[in-house]
Amino acid sequence: MRFRCLSNEELKELDSELIQFLIVNNVYKEDWALLNQESPQKAKELIEMFSDVVLDKVYNKVSFLERQVPKQVCVCSLSDSIGEMITIEAIEDGVDLTKEEVIDECLLISPSKITIYHGKKAFNRTKADEVFLLLNHGFLVSNEERFKNISQHIIPST
Length: 158
Fold this sequence. Notes:
Blueprint: H1 8-13, H2 15-24, H3 29-38, H4 40-61, E1 64-69, E2 72-78, E3 82-90, H5 100-108, E4 114-122, H6 127-135, E5 140-141, H7 144-154
Antiparallel strand pairs: 1-2, 1-5, 2-3, 3-4
Helix pairs in contact: 3-4, 4-6
């Protein structure tokens, strides 16, 4: 299995897609019921295959990720083959970077309170695999506006 198995709730939301996936794999309604009873491991393998197909599509659509903890904020922009990450780390105790106004203050008024790291890297894996790895490290899906708001203070305009 490449990613993770979809939860029962996720599978219920994708019921019609799952039925089509099973039909493409020559498993019809009556076969599916029988397979679940007689060969639950084979049924599980089909669900895992379906989960990988769905999550590959979902993860390939993710363009921005973010992780926030009190002393660090990371924002990422992801193309098909390159990731760009900006990390802001608090140097001083008591600086809580989970508060938006603190990030703004540090970037605009008190840059000595933080260290900023910025880099780009070509993916060693597929984009979907990179997204999955980052999600498993505490990142959440973010948006372009969030990345731009931080990057405008870090990356010189060209």
